[in-house]
Amino acid sequence: MKLKMIKKINIGIAGFGTVGQGFFNQINKFHKDVNVLQIAVKNLTKKRKINFKKIKLTSKANELAENPEIHVVVECIGGSKDPAYALVKNALNNKKHVITANKALLAIHGNELIKVAEANNVTINYEAAIAGGVPIVKAVRENLRHNNIVKIYGILNGTCNYILTKMEQEGKNFASALKDAQKLGYAELDPAFDIKGVDAAHKITLLSSLAFNVPIKFSSTYIEGIDKIELDDFSFAKEFGYKIKLLGIAEKKGSFYEQRVHPCLVKEDSEIAKVENELNAVVVIDEMVGKSVFIGPGAGAKPTGAAITADLIDLMRNNISLPLGGSIMETVKLKNLNILDSSFAYYLKIIVKDEVGVMRKITNILARNKISIDQQKQVHSSKKGYASIVIITHNIKEKIAIKAIKEINNMKRINNKVKFIRIEG
Ligand code: NDP
Ligand code: HSE
After folding, report:
1. Number of folded domains in the chain?
2. Per the domain annotation, does 57 fall within a domain?
């Protein structure tokens, strides 16, 4: 069989930072059939390592959407607002395919942009937007979604996984691990998007739509970041046989589904516990294949550039998929399950005055709320006269756990608020 290949394609690249350059370098080296006509950047006078020869530089990203010679616009600027939003929308309206690494844009405006794409018979490819170099969009969109996916979850933020790994393995403090991740080009322009869990939430929202054929609904995703994790949490977790990971989780439960991002204790012998540094992992559970695990680099110039290249080659081969696998007009409505109605086992860390009767009071509160204790440990706190109590509970509904935690927080001899981490799996 002969594939219908586009011999020569003209593209425009908007954004020439970590991702834009990573992509450019790869096509420059290996894909001479791709013709970069125009590149948009913010600062035209910035010194760049690349000799642009015949490529026209512009600071007006929208020119790429308006340029009739450009077939495909590759958006690597970032952010859910203009210029990325206007550029992508105009490019689609001008019947150009779009490739983007921008998960924020798709999580916020994805439904609208996909409708525009479908109406104009063009597509949006976004492999680079989720888990960097891991081909998870293609795997779910073109394969696994046909098997009734019931759960999709994983480590979706390279920056957070890098920080957690450095804290756990090297005892690095949070701020210096974050600085390293920024130097390596993993972090978002505003790293709060990484450490507060927002970036992972953008990604799990998109994966949830792909997996469950539901509209993209970022506002339904529960979000907690890693900024409250402390060094001693790693050693306590280890004593109980766990590691700490930031997970994005989407799960279908009957006519309900949930989307959540928060730090989790995961069993140290699980696949996901062994995924370190900027690596990402996505686990898909469906009714036919069972469990599939995808692991690879989630951030950085080369993996992300490679994902964009693969998206472009698909377009050149005329292998064009609808952005969500099926039409956005045929998505189904599932009800959102509030996290308060989900059940978890919990890791609780409580710093209390080291006095007789304090422990009994805590266990009384837990017992009154029918929360049973699986394991517990008490050590001297670094604060003189105080003790750290760590408790692993059995499964309990979140709303009951939160009520009990509030009661413990109201006790007189508590030093600061109870820290809790949900246990996954
Ligand atoms: P960078 O900050 O490294 O690069 C952003 C680029 O966009 C720069 O070239 C900048 O221009 C350009 N830009 C900014 N504002 C404008 C504007 N108003 N008009 C034209 N160009 C503009 O970001 P990244 O490459 O890291 O990220 C880009 C996108 O890719 C984001 O959506 C991000 O979430 C996503 N992503 C990032 C990954 C990573 O590992 N870094 C991995 C996967 C996805 P100038 O060079 O002049 O400053
Ligand atoms: N800031 C993101 C991360 C980039 O650290 O995972 C890749 O999407």
Report:
1. 3
2. yes
Q: Distances from the Cα of 58 to the Cαs of 10, 40, 225, 282, 345, in angstroms?
A: 16, 5, 37, 37, 53
The three-state secondary structure class of 324 is strand
Which residue out of 203, 245, 349, 419 is catalytically annotated?
203
Residue 33 CA, chain-centre distance (Å), reads 32
Phi, psi torsion values for 269, nearest 5 degrees? -100, 10
The Cα 158–Cα 377 span in angstroms is 32
356-390 residue pLDDT tens: 888 999 999 999 999 999 999 999 888 888 899 99
Confidence of residue 182 (pLDDT cuts 50, 70, 90): very high
Length of the chain, please? 425
pLDDT tens column, 274-300: 999 999 999 999 999 999 999 999 999
Q: What DSSP string describes 45-87? A: TS--SS--TTPEEES-THHHHH-TT-SEEEE-S-SSSTTHHHH
Please provide the average confidence, as pLDDT, over all residues in the chain.
95
Cis peptide before 83 (omega within 30 of 0): yes
DSSP 375: E
CA–CA gap between residue 150 and residue 139 (Å, rounded): 15
Q: What range does the domain containing 121 cover?
A: 10-132+319-330
Q: Which residue has the higher pLDDT, 144 or 1?
A: 144
Give the domain CATH number at 402.
3.30.70.260
- Residues 398-416 have pLDDT tens digits of 999 999 999 999 998 777 7
My answer on whether 51 and 110 are in the same domain is yes
Residues 60, 101 within the same domain: yes
Whole-angstrom distance, CA of residue 140 vs CA of residue 147: 10
**Residue 159 alpha carbon, nearest atom of ligand 2:** 5
Q: How far is the CA of 363 from the centre of ligand 2 (A)?
A: 41
Q: Is the pTM of this model over 0.90?
A: yes
Ligand 2: residue whose CA is nearest its atom 1? 187
Annotation says 243 is catalytic: no
Residue 170 alpha carbon to ligand 1 centre in Å? 30
- The pLDDT of residue 414 is 76
Same domain for 181 and 236?
yes
Q: What is the pLDDT of residue 289?
A: 98
Q: What is the CATH number of the domain that holds 197?
A: 3.30.360.10
pLDDT at 5: 63
Ligand 2 neighbours (beta carbon < 6 A): 132, 157-159, 186-188, 194, 199, 298-299
Identify the nearest ligand to the CA of 305 by its number.
1
Q: In a 3-state reduction of DSSP, which class is residue 364?
A: helix
